[in-house]
Amino acid sequence: MKKIIYFSAPWCGPCKVLGPTMQKLSSELPITKINVDEDTNTSVKYGIRNVPTLVLVDNSGKELNRLIGNVSEQQVKEFYNG
Fold it and tell me: How far is CA 6 from CA 10, 20, in A?
């Protein structure tokens, strides 16, 4: 099963805008939120250079796709559903 890893930071303005959308979608889609300041290992593993970043991964954690920046609810759904 695929899941979205949502990389964010508390000091990031665009992350604050995207946060409520991701919170809402977390009831429909498998989303794991990562604070880049607290989980540097995962951030480095996926080469996160900008926040917010959404990384779509498969069961093994292999990256399938990514979105960077502020996106709409519809864009996140399309990103997940391919």
Answer: 13, 12
Q: Quick one: tokens of 53?
A: 């970043």
Give residue 38's pLDDT. Answer: 97
12 catalytic residue (yes or no): yes
pLDDT over 70 for what percent of the chain? Answer: 100
State the chain's mean pLDDT as an integer.
97
41-53: pLDDT as tens digits? 999 999 999 999 9
Q: Which of 2, 12, 14, 71 is catalytic?
A: 12
Total residues belonging to the chain: 82
**Which candidate in 4, 5, 9, 15 is catalytic?**
15
Asked if residue 75 lies in contact with residue 67, where contact means CB atoms within 8 angstroms, the answer is yes
Domains contained in the chain, CATH given = 3-81 (3.40.30.10)
Active site residue 24: no
Amino acid at 7: F
